[in-house]
Design goal:
Distance between the termini: 53 Å
CATH topology of the largest domain: Rossmann fold
Number of strands: 5
Structural class: alpha/beta
CATH class of the largest domain: Alpha Beta
Shape: elongated
Protein name: DnaA regulatory inactivator Hda
Largest sheet: 5 strands, parallel
CATH architecture of the largest domain: 3-Layer(aba) Sandwich
Strand content: 5-15%
Number of domains: 2
Helix content: 40-55%
InterPro entries: DnaA_dom (IPR013317), Hda (IPR017788), Hda_lid (IPR055199), P-loop_NTPase (IPR027417)
Length: 237
């Protein structure tokens, strides 16, 4: 019998973190990875462990949360573990029993560096998940070979995983992604405004989308369209 999903206290999935909301251009090199993750999360792919990595803002966290949303939609039990938020917890207690779930998603795995207790707990979880026939999705900012992991057995297992690097968006795709995200939020972001934001704000997509949310809220409160003067006023850029 499937165990209901249960997120730790203080951890939640972003409503907009879905596969449909992950921007892909027609020639996007990430298309294959996203398609694989969709089948993996829905239980249609028998792969045991997938490891995706990329720079901050490349979409790793978005895709891990999307996998959890997809698992839930398909009636599968899951757990999302963002290590950046939960490092203060006892890893043995936190990871205990997760192998009973259909899908376990561990984010920010690069934070294992310099954390021997976490490395040991993760090693045992990896083995338990594989032995139980469940699935593990790992996300990090570094490749397994680029990780400074002192526990050799864990490092070798990470390197055995199916590993993919997310490729960053170019500027044209970032503008298109901003405009698409704005339409999903119910408003139109003119191209000149999107270009203005891109060239004056932090350039990683996570930061850009957060700025878009800020503009959306400010626009609704002020009952004003989002123009370059309005962006200057709200974001001070």
């Amino acid at each position: 019998m499937s165990i209901p999903q249960q997120l730790p206290l203080g951890v939640s999935l972003r409503d907009d973190a879905t596969f449909d909301n992950f921007y892909l251009s027609e020639s996007d090199p990430n298309r294959q990875v996203v398609a694989l993750l969709q089948s993996f999360a829905s239980g249609q792919n028998p792969e045991a462990v997938i490891y995706i990595w990329g720079d901050a803002g490349s979409g790793v966290s978005h895709l891990l949360q999307s996998a959890c949303q997809s698992a839930e939609a398909n009636g599968r039990s899951f757990q999302y573990i963002p290590m950046a938020e939960l490092m203060a917890m006892d890893p043995v207690v936190l990871l205990d029993g997760l192998e009973q779930l259909d899908l376990v998603c561990i984010d920010d795995l690069h934070l294992l560096e310099g954390q021997p207790e976490w490395q040991t707990a993760m090693f045992h979880l990896y083995n338990r998940v594989r032995d139980s026939g469940r699935q593990l999705l790992l996300g990090a900012r570094k490749s397994p070979r680029g990780m400074d992991i002192s526990l050799a057995d864990l490092l070798s297992r990470l390197q055995w995983s199916l590993v993919f690097q997310l490729q960053p968006m170019n500027d044209r795709d970032k503008v298109a992604a901003l405009r698409r995200r704005s339409r999903l939020r119910g408003f139109d972001l003119p191209e000149d405004v999107a270009q203005y934001i891109l060239h004056r704000a932090p350039r990683d997509t996570r930061a850009l989308f957060l700025l878009l949310e800020q503009l959306d809220r400010a626009s609704l409160m002020a009952q004003r369209k989002i123009t370059i003067p309005f962006v200057k006023q709200v974001l001070d850029i």
